[in-house]
Amino acid sequence: MDLDVVNMFVIAGGTLALPILAFVASFLLWPSALIRIYYWYWRRTLGMQVRYVRHEDYQFCYSFRGRPGHKPSILMLHGFSAHKDMWLSMVKFLPKNLHLVCVDMPGHEGTTRSSLDDLSIDGQVKRIHQFVECLKLNKKPFHLVGTSMGGHVAGVYAAHYPSDVCSLSLVCPAGLQYSTDNKFVQRLKELQESAAVEKIPLIPTTPKEMSEMLQLCSYVRFKVPQQILQGLVDVRIPHNTFYRKLFLEIVSEKSRYSLHQNMDKIKVPTQIIWGKQDQVLDVSGADMLAKSIANSQVELLENCGHSVVMERPRKTAKLLVDFLASVHSTENSKKLD
User: Fold this and answer.
1) Whole-angstrom Cα distance, residue 259 to residue 213?
2) Residues designated catalytic
3) What pLDDT, in 10s, does the model give residues 217-234?
4) Domains of the chain
5) pTM across the whole model
6) Which sequence ranges are marked TM in the entry (predicted)?
7) Which region among 11-15, 125-129, 142-146, 219-223 has the lowest average model confidence (pLDDT)?
8) How many whole angstroms separate alpha carbon 90 and alpha carbon 87?
9) Other CB atoms within 10 A of residue 295 CB
10) Where do the H-state alpha helices sit in the chain?
11) Which position has the higher pLDDT, 195 or 105?
């Protein structure tokens, strides 16, 4: 081998050694920092920009892509203890000509967390309406998407502010009253009765508990390295006191069945997406909603649990795009008649 080529490899090896060592050290010692960098990089790659907007002394953090156009804007509401970036896996498969807005829910990530804030479902609905007003997103009716707790809020929002919303996608939403409790809900009720709020399965405090939560929420068994599990826990631990307060509020008598109590008031075309193997919120909720919402369609996903957006992002994106296309074309046909 030519000596110059050997020298080139030696120099290249020396140049790359420090970044590689730094990456390995970060992965082992500061996995939570890597997780933040990962989301930053993914947002940048997908063209999602982060912005802040204020309503009086309250700050909302959101990411967006595109601009309002002839197609409805899409507002996405994430679930309990998540954040706006949970939608990135699905955003990857959405057309770039759509105007997307992903907001951090009250108290989450970059949105204001206040001890005085009303964290009930109705309180969160009012906050999201303030956000919508700040962006003037309701200048033209928009499509609203919500999953889990975000689906609970989205459904009640559509019932309370019907003129804001042109259509709705509910992805395994919370807030329904079932005739029988599944194992997860039974366990939650036992924890509530024993006042063992430190042991809520959706609020992990160790890598083992994080792994158990991922298995609870996903049908697909992700192989997550121990360091990443630790990083996920490290990111969440500073917020766990807030998560416990929020959780107890949304399962309280005031909020627990808000969607159930308002579902018959939802009049816009509604898409209901649910994983058939959901262990958190039983899939029978889809049929319950379909019977109460006149203009609705149900999509049940095989081999999919509660984390629909994470487990089946491509399929969920396609269902959303197809639904919007059918609703939009129907409305255009009516205008022509």
Assistant:
1) 24
2) 148, 278, 306
3) 999 887 888 888 888 898
4) 47-335 (3.40.50.1820)
5) 0.89
6) 20-41
7) 11-15
8) 5
9) 13
10) 3-29, 31-46, 88-91, 121-135, 149-160, 183-193, 207-217, 226-236, 240-250, 258-262, 284-292, 308-311, 313-336
11) 105
